[in-house]
Amino acid sequence: MNALSGLIRRLERAETLDRLARPLTAAIGRAVRPRAVRNLLSGTDLGHPLHPMLTDLPIGAWGMSALLDAVGGRSAERSADLLMAAGVLAAVPTAAAGLNDWSDTYGADTRVGLAHATINTAALGLYVASLSLRAHGKRTRGKVIGLAGFAVLLAGSYLGGHLSFARGVNVNRTAWQQGPRDWTPVLPDADLPEGEHRVVAAAGVPMLLHRTAGTVRALANTCSHMGGPLDEGTIAEDRVTCPWHGSTFRLADGAVVRGPASSPQPRYETRVSGDRIEVRAVD
Could you tell me if 189 and 160 lie in one domain? Predict the structure, then answer.
């Protein structure tokens, strides 16, 4: 294990950070509770999380501003300032989407996310200070502060990459669940009364079966958002709500009704053959 990996492991185990993180995640959770806010910040209508996409805007703007500060000369000063200001403006919705995602994390993910947010906030503060210095004619100091902001931003970006690619935060938990391609019996028909649900498995995939108005619906039982067990949630009005973070899906087609989920829930075709309920993946 290299020194950087060791530092990350210590950060993941730093339980003292939980005393600060818990009230913050709770407060953010309350702020994003309205469905319209939750769906917007989660990227529900995009089909994937919003935050990773937005990060390209401030990082790109600030990166080009740093390049112009370093090699652009006097003729590039106005462009560098404009890019820095654009990055500051873009950082606001980016941070909002990131905080929305962070409010659903636990344990090591929450601790790393807290450090990620703190470092990025420090970078934002340095960029605001740099803009202020430039506006007051102190360009050399403003450039130094801006370049320091970019160095801090890189550290925050590293932690963001660790959360996404090493920890798998906000990765679709059903992406590799295929289900059977052929009709597969999973349950006696008599074992699923009207209005009730059961969990079955087919081709290694746990599935939620629910019968309503005589029709059997089948969705992947693992919530696409963070892997919650849908069968332990609530089912009402032909919708199932995950017990962990409140993601709500239509039983008919798996579409997301309410975030934080952004990926639809995989659904499976069903039929009754003889006295058995059978399922198969949707083509």
Answer: no
Show the domain range for 220. 184-281
Confidence of residue 2 (pLDDT cuts 50, 70, 90): confident
The answer to whether residue 200 is domain-embedded is yes
Does one domain contain both 117 and 199?
no
In CATH, what number is assigned to the domain containing residue 243?
2.102.10.10
Task: Residue 199: name the closest of 231, 222, 223, 173 by CA.
Answer: 231
| Prediction pTM value | 0.92
Alpha-carbon gap, residue 150 to 267, rounded angstroms? 44
How large a percentage of the chain has pLDDT more than 70? Answer: 100
Same domain, yes or no: 149 and 25 = yes
Confirm if 221 and 210 have CB atoms less than 8 A apart: no
User: Within 13 A of 195's CA, how many CA atoms are on the CB side?
Assistant: 1
* Segment 128-162, tens digit of pLDDT: 999 999 999 999 999 999 999 999 999 999 999 99
- The per-residue pLDDT for range 42-57, each reduced to its tens digit, is 999 999 999 999 999 9
Contact, 252 vs 217, CB < 8 A?
A: yes
Q: Are residues 150 and 243 in the same domain?
A: no
Same domain, residue pair 95 and 227: no
pLDDT for 47 equals 93
Cis peptide preceding 229, ω within 30 of 0? no
Count the alpha carbons within 13 Å of 233 in the hemisphere toward its beta carbon. 23
Torsions phi, psi for 250 (to 5 deg): -75, 130
In angstroms, the CA 114 to CA 123 distance is: 14
